[in-house]
Amino acid sequence: MRDPQDVMMSVKDLRMRYGTNDVLHGVDFTAHRGEVICLLGPNGAGKTTTIEILEGFRMRSEGEVSVLGVDPAHADENWRARLGVVLQAWRDHAKWRVRELLEHLGGYYAPYSTDRIKRPWDPDELIAAVGLTAHADKRVRMLSGGQRRRLDVAIGIVGRPELLFLDEPTAGLDPEARREFHELVHRLTDDDDTTILLTTHDLDEAEKLADRILILNHGRIVADGSADALSRQIAGEAEVRWTLDGQRFVHSTTESTKYVHELFKQHGDAIGDLEVRRASLEDTYMTLVRQAESPLTEVGAR
Ligand SMILES: Nc1ncnc2c1ncn2[C@@H]1O[C@H](COP(=O)(O)OP(=O)(O)OP(=O)(O)O)[C@@H](O)[C@H]1O
């Protein structure tokens, strides 16, 4: 079961500078076991840089980072075996066949199997989980872009990671593959309590998957909360729409439940087509990113 005390990752005042270019300006966040966190932000905001530092692929300039209780800058193989990584684009392993490759890579994880976590994932089960059964004997270079992306995900989870990093995992996937991927994410968190940090530009996906959303803009976290909490923070008002005697009505209110209750008390069954609309994550995202663009406002910025 998820234990909110179980901190899987903690980042304090993380800063990154490339040459003279500061790209992370003091990023703070914590992730707990079994949480799915979506890292959103415009191109160049610093998402990949942040993830690469957490994965131990990039040295930070300043700040404290702990991933599975270890500083990634000084981590060992045992630590790495507990992580799963899906980068933006793998272009290797072209000559391997899908099942062979997963069997081969899975072999590296076998020594890290524990009583609680049996490593690696059975290749055929894994291939089925990512929807590649029909392509299991194909060479990697023969896969389509979307099939290759599914394989990337399989490679990322073959060692049954406790913590999984996914950088734009659904880029290039068709709607069906995308939905299957979402089911896989739910399966990983429900069955294995996997903690997941993923980046995406698909706000609908973030809303579906994330327990928590972090919005990074110009190297700063400008929002941290559930999709619901963020939309409440930004747009306190909801829009109530209904029809009465063939006429359409719209009313904006901060107390939609109370308002709807009053409507029914007054008009009962005569109310039709009732709809309550909160700000979408897209509205929230655009508002937060634009607010952070303006030097005069600091809403949500830390
Ligand atoms: N190796 C590097 N050397 C110098 N600058 C870099 C390097 N990698 C990234 N940057 C710069 O750091 C900033 C953040 O880049 P990063 O790739 O982390 O953004 P991102 O949020 O992942 O963007 P995207 O959504 O486009 O993938 C950008 O201004 C980028 O040009």
Small molecules (ligands, ions, cofactors) in the structure: adenosine-5'-triphosphate
- Output the strand order for the largest sheet: 5-6-7-3-8-9
List low-confidence stretches.
296-302
Q: How many structural domains does the protein architecture include?
A: 2
Return the CATH topology of the largest domain: Rossmann fold
**How much strand content do the residues show?**
25-35%
Class of the largest domain in CATH?
Answer: Alpha Beta
* Helix amount: 25-40%
Secondary structure class reads alpha/beta
CATH architecture of the largest domain: 3-Layer(aba) Sandwich
Subcellular location: Cell membrane
Protein name: ABC-2 type transport system ATP-binding protein
Domain ABC transporter: 9-243
GO molecular function: ATP binding; ATP hydrolysis activity
Write a compact overview of the structure shown:
Mean pLDDT is 89; it is low at 296-302.
Molecular structure report:
- The chain has helices at 47-55, 77-81, 98-107, 123-129, 145-157, 175-192, 203-209, 227-234, 256-267, 281-293; strands spanning 7-18, 21-32, 36-40, 62-67, 83-86, 163-167, 195-199, 212-217, 220-225, 238-244, 247-253, 271-277.
- It is built from ten helices and twelve strands.
- 34% of the residues lie in helices and 27% in strands.
- It is globular, with a radius of gyration of 22 Å.
- The strands form three sheets. The protein has a six-stranded mixed β-sheet with strand order 5-6-7-3-8-9, with helices on both faces. It has a three-stranded antiparallel β-sheet with strand order 2-1-4, with helices on one face.
- With 302 residues, the chain is α/β, with parallel strands linked by helices.
- The protein folds into two domains: 7-229, Rossmann fold (3-Layer(aba) Sandwich), CATH 3.40.50.300; 236-277.
- Residues 296-302 have low confidence and may be disordered.
- Adenosine-5'-triphosphate (ATP) binds next to helix 1.
